[in-house]
Amino acid sequence: MSEIAELLERFRRGPELVAMAMTGAAGAELDYAPAPGKWSLRQILCHLADSEMEAGIRMRRIIAEDNPTLLAYDQDAWAERLNYSRRKTTQALETFRHIRGLNYELLQSLPEEAFERQGTHSERGPVTLLDMLRTYARHAEKHAAQIQAVRQAYRQSRETA
Prior knowledge:
Blueprint: H1 3-22, H2 41-64, E1 69-70, H3 75-81, H4 89-108, E2 118-121, E3 125-128, H5 129-160
Helix pairs in contact: 1-4, 1-5, 2-4, 2-5
């Protein structure tokens, strides 16, 4: 299996990993933050939904435009100003699933040479479509592990309370 095919499969499975990590989470657990400045499950899901929308725009710009500028964003400002703490987790997860599905359908339809196209990230410099695929394949995996860690911390906090 080629690297691109493997990454596409990991990318496709991302929402499943997140959904499995969230299975059974409810009530106070959704808003538990393991430490000051750390995100709750609700905030992580909202971040995944919003960052997937941003990823889709970035990927489309790389595919359609010649060396586009890809603007960075402040994820903590988004979490605060887009009211992550009040958004619905079910909607955030469904948004993530839906947008990831659309992004996957686009990417899997491309010829391999399209993954060599690049843009310029405003903070990181040159980035190819393949770099983006690597980043976003890892992104859901990383946050699924983070969800599991937050849930474990929540359980431990309940045991000691």
